[in-house]
């Protein structure tokens, strides 16, 4: 089943679930990360206050975005950073390409940036003849494997150690069958070190842009953003316009929340502050809209722009954990991606808001208190009204509504269903049209309906 040429979430998840062992292991691995997040959060008595403050700061940012962006731009320019605006992915990629051309950059290293994934920068530059090297270890692994990230914080979380060993054997010449993490990491370190030394340009994302100072902050665990930017002459930072915070003093609130929510660490290993180019070097900042202003204009969904991309909602989501990031067919998967993606292409992503149990666990863990499950529910209503027609669902709802409004018919059909389920052969009940029953068994059929039971027992 597909929407246009794109598989629905359910169809893509079915592919992943064919490998039951991997699905189970993926679920357990992410749950472990969720538990680490809980332990880290519980150690801070002020955790809930931090979430409240972060949410309020982001509310302020969203309601003053225009002014704060101009302030940020002006301060950054005063610091000697060249600033460009990009209304969409195409403009973003063209800015990067032009900067590389103007500065005769031939070798480019890139640290993890979800925005550049969203804009398809690697593909764009590769078509122009550039060799773009992703330097985050997880990103490099999936780059070797010709895949896209399956998680925004742990891009290669879908791969097992053994598979990474095979990938390194093919691309880095490590010993066949070797999967010791220390050995593989050392091989990656040696490989990437050479790439850092050779590079003359470095691209990074931005975790937080500070309107008050015109500076920005990049968080990594491997120090790869620092290695790239310190060795290359040109630093291009790509930032979504929602990544702003008003003051430097606000930064501590977000840094305390980000790493704890993402991986359970107190802080990311490297929290790098960039304010101005070093003497003789150049620094560029590209501020990218790419649908964010449109999302800001949707009252029910504007809160989704508060996201600081910690990944906690993915780690806790029972659907994401079992179906993996690839099932979402979107740069940002999981619960928050299922809110953001329909805003960019409703037809393509119309199945995503339905990939949720609406249990609310995502909203519970979100460090900036986005009402994720409520927005997913809201998207379902919008999609039902405006999305592609779903005649089978509409007919079923109409029929259900009619039956429920006629008590005698409801009682009669209930009795009929109980009798048929009891007496029908299993093969007839679990037929190929019964998608629900593919992986599940119905409970034993009760002798009577609840109404009958209640009428018999209410006096006692
Ligand atoms: S929506 Fe919240 S929990 Fe999910 S990635 Fe964004 S900040 Fe983290």
Automatic annotation (TrEMBL):
Q: Which Pfam families match?
A: Fer4_8, LUD_dom, LutB_C
On whether Transport is a keyword of this UniProt record, the answer is: yes
Task: Identify the SUPFAM superfamilies for this entry.
Answer: 4Fe-4S ferredoxins, NagB/RpiA/CoA transferase-like
Domain called 4Fe-4S ferredoxin-type: residue spans: 297-318
| Keyword Protein biosynthesis appears in the UniProt entry | no
- What keywords are annotated for this sequence in UniProt? 4Fe-4S, Electron transport, Iron, Iron-sulfur, Metal-binding, Repeat, Transport
- Protein name in the entry: Lactate utilization protein B
- Please tell me the species this chain comes from: Negadavirga shengliensis
Give the source lineage, highest ranks first.
Bacteria, Pseudomonadati, Bacteroidota, Cytophagia, Cytophagales
